[in-house]
Write a structure and sequence with these properties.
The complex is a heterodimer of chains A (about 120) and B (about 130). Helix content of chain A is about 45%, strand content about 20%. Chain A is α/β, with parallel strands linked by helices. In chain A, helix 1 packs parallel to helix 2. With about 130 residues, chain B is of the alpha+beta class. In chain B, helix 2 runs antiparallel to helix 4. Classes of the chains: A alpha/beta (about 120), B alpha+beta (about 130).
Chain lengths: ~120, ~130
């Protein structure tokens, strides 16, 4: 299942679906990076509320997205990591270091509109 | 509900299928939502290893019991290249591909029992079990 990417002002919102294959995730990454350039977006939110499993491939892809978006000069935030998923990520050893996170879409948007986020600080 | 199920693993979509089937099988047992996620994540890791390294293999899911305790056993089997150094493969951060190298050691942490047997040129079998609390 493909991710949907919405443009809201200067922000792109990518919604990860529950059942995305590795190829789907990689495609979302590629589209997001192109879309940031195309729309001159300043912020990207990756909403993983629906994601049931965050395994090492998904985490690596998210980390890649964060780094690529940063290189383009925009800020990205991963929102909606479910408590069970966070529990499993920590046990697996996935930390998403250097990635901004927020509780949900609303918090993520508020963060992007607020004072500039310093990478690694949040 | 059958007590045993085999999912053939060849492409990344099969990884999703395997963890979905495991969730269905484990659901009637006394697992919390977190534990179901741990099982699904461990399956995701070992199934991806099959796709990445062996190209094809299978995941066998089986309900098991020990006394009154029930559990789910996952056997991931392939006839791929095998692992040259299992001790290194079980170290966090070691990978011969560009992955994070957390799959095998991470899966061991997610499950209660974990065993890996591999022979170069013959393949790899990972057997792991999660028990009800």
């Amino acid at each position: 299942m493909r991710a949907s990417i919405l443009k809201q002002g200067s922000v792109l919102i990518a919604s990860v679906q529950g059942s995305m294959t590795d190829a789907d995730l990689a495609q979302m990454r590629d589209e997001l990076v192109l879309d940031v350039r195309r729309h001159r977006s300043t912020g990207v939110i990756v909403d993983v509320t629906m994601l049931e499993v965050m395994d090492s491939f998904a985490a690596r892809t998210l980390r890649g997205i964060t780094q690529m978006i940063k290189l383009l000069g925009a800020t990205s935030i991963v929102v909606g990591i479910q408590p069970e998923v966070a529990f499993s990520m920590v046990q697996l050893g996935l930390t998403l270091e250097g990635t901004n996170t927020a509780l949900d879409l609303e918090e993520g948007l508020a963060l992007l509109k607020g004072p500039r986020i310093d990478h690694h600080e949040r | 509900m059958s007590a045993e199920l085999v999912v053939q693993i060849r492409v990344d979509a099969d990884v999703l299928l395997a963890r979905q089937k495991a969730r269905e099988m484990a659901k009637p047992l006394r697992f919390s939502a977190s534990e179901l996620t741990l099982i699904a994540t461990a399956i995701s890791e070992v199934a991806r290893n099959i796709v990445t390294y062996a190209k094809r293999g299978q995941i066998m899911l089986r309900l098991v019991s020990r006394g009154r305790r029930r559990g789910i056993r996952v056997v991931a089997q392939d006839e791929g290249p095998g692992i040259a150094d299992i001790n290194r493969a079980m170290e966090d951060g070691f990978s011969t591909s560009s992955s994070l190298g957390l799959g095998l050691p991470g899966s061991k942490r997610l499950m209660d029992e974990f065993d890996i047997v591999s022979a170069l040129g013959k393949g790899t079998t990972v057997t792991m079990t999660k028990w009800e609390r």
